[in-house]
Amino acid sequence: MDDAARDPVPQAVTAGEYVALLRDARRRSGLTYRDIARRASAAGHWLPPSTLATMLGRTTLPRERTVVAMLAAIGTPAGEVERLLGMRRDIEARLDERDRCETQPARDTADPRPGVDPAPGVDPVPPEPPRSRAPRPVRRWLRPALLAVVGVLTVGTTGVLLPKAVATVDDAPTADCPLVLRQGMYGPCVLDLQEHLVAGGLAVPVDGWFGPDTTSRVIAFQAMGGMPVSGIADGRVLDELADAPPVPPTWSEERIGKYLRLVFPEDPGGAVRVARCLSGLDPYRVEVVADGSRRWGLFQFSDTELSRLGVDGRTALDPGWNIRAARDVWSRAGGFGHWRCAPSP
């Protein structure tokens, strides 16, 4: 019996089986998630441990660029990289074909016999014209990335092959990402930042645009992590997002409403209305105003108010504290006149 018969090349026909192959490759490498992240970074990829853990913990087909980053980091031979990526593309094509079949319009159930008119008063429904399938986007980054893996390789002290250089990736976060991400930027580097914010428990639109919502979430993450609060995602923020546990689960609107009614029994409706107007009932909402100062949490306490109260942004983002502090203000002011908020139309 030849070697191929004794040790068949692993194959996968489903997304779950494909992820299992990747998990096995990671296990056989003997590298930890942090080791792989460091090696991927040295090769020009951005693959935080949390992203790797998420990919290997699911049964859905992972992104091609993430697969390339992991395979490069663990020193996978070039031929095996090509084979695994080809296998992934085959699975992706089958999934696309299945989705296309499932979304085909139902067959016309009208009487197909010639001369039979539709029911009186009912307009016949014209058949939907066949949709032309858009060509799959060309992954311009894939071939250069593979060439980099195939290209200059060195053997480290552990005998693991490591890529010495890697080509630039057009549409994926790489070493070409800016060292600092800030409001106004757009692109895949921001997209990855947003995905990590969401994974950490801070909901934000994942659209690749670093707008006020992303700034708000970065500030919240910095405050809750005890970091300097700037709203700018630098290397420390990205590292913390990759390694830190999720932020405490946010309160639901129902829980917020119940607590507001408990704390403001004299005017529960007014309390809910003001909090909704100020923050959309989002406990982690941080607004940056024109002068650069910030307003925090459900009742949008200002930096000046937090300083006077002797608390930091992390405390202000605790919905329980924020509501109780609002009650104190309400009691002193004799109502909600302290807050000015014009509800959205």
List keywords for this structure.
345 residues, mainly alpha, Muramoyl-pentapeptide Carboxypeptidase, domain 1, Lysozyme, 3 domains, 5 strands, 48% helix
Q: Mean of the pLDDT scores?
A: 78
Please tally the helical runs, counting DSSP H or I stretches of 4 or more residues. 15
Q: How many beta strands in the DSSP annotation?
A: 5
Domain count: the total is 3
Strand content: under 5%
Separation of termini?
A: 77 Å
Oligomer: single chain
What kind of sheet is the major sheet? Answer: 3 strands, antiparallel
- The Cα radius of gyration reads 27 Å
Cα shape: elongated
Please list the strands of the largest sheet in the order they lie side by side.
3-4-5
Unreliable residue stretches:
1-7, 107-175
Region (Disordered): 95-136
Protein name: Peptidoglycan-binding protein
Biased composition (Pro residues): 115-129
InterPro entries: Lysozyme-like_dom_sf, Peptidoglycan-bd-like, PGBD-like_sf, PGBDSf
Write up what this structure looks like.
InterPro entries: Lysozyme-like_dom_sf, Peptidoglycan-bd-like, PGBD-like_sf, PGBDSf. This is Peptidoglycan-binding protein. Residues 115-129 have a biased composition (Pro residues). Residues 95-136 are annotated as: Disordered. This protein is mainly α. It has three domains: 8-101 and 142-172, no CATH class; 188-243, Orthogonal Bundle (Muramoyl-pentapeptide Carboxypeptidase, domain 1), CATH 1.10.101; 253-333, Lysozyme (Orthogonal Bundle), CATH 1.10.530.10. The chain has 15 helices and five strands. It has helices spanning 3-6, 15-29, 33-42, 49-57, 64-73, 78-102, 142-150, 188-199, 212-224, 235-243, 253-263, 268-279, 303-309, 313-316, 319-333, and strands at residues 153-155, 161-163, 286-288, 294-296, 301-302. The strands form two sheets. A three-stranded antiparallel sheet has the order 3-4-5.
